[in-house]
Amino acid sequence: MKFNYPVLTKPEKCQHCKTCIAACPVGAIKDVDPRFELDMSKCATRTDCFSCVMHCKGHALILKQADTTEKINIVVQ
Ligand code: SF4
Ligand code: SF4
To answer: Which atom of ligand 2 is least distant from the CA of 29?
Structure first.
């Protein structure tokens, strides 16, 4: 199944505000210091969601399309 997941394309713009974590309706983004990790299986349950990207204060996130079988864990370093 294809779905959209968030990617940090501009790490220098990340303010580490954790707004993306709070904005996720399924708790897919976890703060595992010193980075944030994305639980792909949780994110994939919301195929039309872009809440974290929309709320990102630093405009540091974009959505990218992937297959649920791909392994992509790190959102914010
Ligand atoms: S796209 Fe939606 S479900 Fe996925 S991490 Fe962002 S807020 Fe959570
Ligand atoms: S990715 Fe965006 S919302 Fe998340 S901590 Fe960084 S600036 Fe804040």
So the answer is: 4
Domain membership of residue 56 as a residue range: 2-76
List the CATH number of the domain containing 34.
Answer: 3.30.70.20
| Ligand 1 pocket, residue 44 CB under 6 Å | no
- Tell which residue, 51, 47, 57, has the closest CA to residue 24: 51
Average pLDDT over residues 44-52: 89
Judged by its nearest atom, the ligand closest to the C-alpha of residue 14 is 2
Number of structural domains (the chain) is 1
Q: Read off the pLDDT of residues 8-35 as tens digits, 9 standing for 90 and up.
A: 888 889 998 999 999 999 999 998 887 8
Closest CA to 60 of 13, 28, 25, 4: 13
* CA 77 / ligand 1 centre spacing (Å): 17
Ligand nearest to the CA of 51: 1
